[in-house]
Every structure is written in structure tokens, then in C-alpha cells.
TrEMBL record:
Listed name of the protein: Stage 0 sporulation protein A homolog
Modified residues annotated as 4-aspartylphosphate in this record: D57
InterPro entries: CheY-like_superfamily, LytR-like, LytTR_DNA-bd_dom, Sig_transdc_resp-reg_receiver
SMART domains according to UniProt: LytTR, REC
Known role: May play the central regulatory role in sporulation. It may be an element of the effector pathway responsible for the activation of sporulation genes in response to nutritional stress. Spo0A may act in concert with spo0H (a sigma factor) to control the expression of some genes that are critical to the sporulation process.
Cross-referenced PROSITE patterns: HTH_LYTTR (PS50930), RESPONSE_REGULATORY (PS50110)
Keywords assigned by UniProt, alphabetized: Phosphoprotein
Location of the Response regulatory domain: 3-120
PANTHER family: STAGE 0 SPORULATION PROTEIN A HOMOLOG (PTHR37299:SF1), TRANSCRIPTIONAL REGULATOR-RELATED (PTHR37299)
Keyword flag Cell cycle: no
Residue ranges occupied by any HTH LytTR-type domain in the UniProt entry: 131-230
């Protein structure tokens, strides 16, 4: 599922965008969840890094789309930004916040759908995938690239990222399925690792770059070794 945040103060344009997203969902059978904000100030105040794409009207009261984008970039470097504007030159400074594109008002469905398709393809084409973690204390969007390994303990799934640890109720099998295409491999029935962070594999011990050591099950040893050799193209011994 893709999550889109829209900051637009004009109710008529909100209605149009909502209808266009629904139409696009029906035509493509893509699951999209849209959240609307009345202006940039509300978006920034309520912002959580859980969105894949943001549609921001450049001209809004209290806080315009460009200022909102600057604030959001301080918290979220991955979200794709598309500006909505009356005049193309208003979006010329979009490079400052890494904007993907802009949509001109009045918004036409064909143009809007092309911009949306471009954004969603860009999200899909990333080497990593954004995963929404609903953990004990809240929720957060985390890139698979930032996950070092995951481990199941006492029915709780522990997600170890570069910076933090999260605990959520899930099965290892279910979570691993989300990561299968992003350089992860399960080394036992208890844990899966991101091969990017492996620094050593001796006998049946995997060592990660934070010095964590994990034991590979006997049944998985050959598969893990081959996966690592393929990943590093023979560079790991």
C-alpha cells in the first residue's frame, strides 16, 4: 500500500484530488491511502514519516508548501514531493527540497495520473522499501536499508535498525516476506539478517558490523553461505 499526504487549503481542489486518486486506484488496482491537511502548518505539526508521496500546494495560508517541504526534509529525506501550483515558475526552487515534479492548476486527470504514476514507479524502483512499523509506543516508517536484522523472541518481533530497536507483534515469516527482495536472508527460525551489514561468517557464526554475533542453524548454513557469496560476488570468505 502507498500512503500519500496532501496539503491543500482549497476544498474544491481537495475534492478533485480525492476523486482523481479514487479513479486512479480503480484503473490500476493499486492500494493508496490518502490523508488531507488544510495547510502546510497542519501538515508539519502532525507529520510522521509514514508517507511515500506528498502533494503540496505552494500557495497556502500560515505556511506555504515550499516552507512546509523544508521543514519536512529535516525529518524525512525519503518521501517524494510533488508541488501543486498555479504557475510553473513558483515551483522552480523545488530542487532545494529534492522535489520530484509539480502539477499545474487547474488540475487535469491525465496530467495528474501521469505524475502520480511517475512517483509510484520511483517508490517501487528504490533498492529499499519503506515499511510501516506499528510497534509498542507508536508507528514509524523505516527503510529496509536501515534494518540490520530482525529476531523473534517470546512472540515479539524485535527490529534492530542502525539507530533503534522496535518491538511489534508479528511473525518472523510474515515480516521476512516483506524483505525477501531487499538483500535479507533468514539464518534460522529465530532471525533474518540484512546481508549489507555482514562483516564475517566463520563456521556457524555470522558477525554484523556492530559486532553482533548470531548463530546460523545447521540446515541453513549452506544456503546462507551461497547467498552471501552471491551478494558480495565472491568477495566474502
Amino acid at each position: 500500500m502507498f500512503r500519500i499526504g496532501i496539503a491543500e487549503d482549497d476544498p474544491s481542489f481537495q475534492k478533485t484530488i480525492s476523486e482523481y486518486i479514487e479513479r486512479y486506484k480503480k484503473e490500476t488496482n493499486i492500494d493508496i491511502q490518502a490523508s488531507f491537511f488544510q495547510d502546510g502548518n497542519e501538515l508539519v505539526f502532525k507529520y510522521e514519516p509514514i508517507y511515500d508521496v506528498l502533494l503540496l500546494d505552494i500557495e497556502m495560508p500560515k505556511m506555504n508548501g515550499m516552507d512546509a517541504a523544508r521543514e519536512i526534509r529535516k525529518r524525512d529525506q525519503r518521501v517524494l514531493i510533488i508541488f501543486i501550483t498555479n504557475m510553473a515558475q513558483y515551483a522552480i526552487n523545488g530542487y532545494e527540497v529534492g522535489a520530484l515534479d509539480f502539477v499545474l492548476k487547474p488540475i487535469k486527470y491525465f496530467s495528474f495520473s501521469m505524475k502520480l504514476e511517475k512517483a509510484l514507479k520511483s517508490v517501487k524502483g528504490q533498492e529499499s522499501v519503506n515499511i510501516l512499523l506499528e510497534y509498542k509506543d507508536g508507528m514509524k516508517k523505516v527503510s529496509s536499508d536501515e534494518i540490520v536484522y530482525v529476531e523473534i523472541r517470546d512472540h515479539w518481533l524485535h527490529i534492530f535498525t542502525v539507530d533503534e530497536e522496535y518491538q511489534l507483534l508479528s511473525t518472523l515469516k510474515e515480516f521476512a516476506a516483506k524483505l525477501a527482495d531487499y538483500h535479507f536472508i533468514c539464518c534460522s527460525s529465530s532471525f533474518c539478517i540484512n546481508m549489507k551489514y555482514v562483516t564475517d561468517f566463520q563456521k556457524d557464526i555470522i558477525t554484523l558490523n556492530d559486532k553482533t554475533e548470531l548463530k546460523v542453524s545447521r540446515s541453513k548454513k549452506k544456503e546462507v553461505k551461497q547467498a552471501l557469496l552471491d551478494y558480495y560476488k565472491g568477495g566474502l570468505r
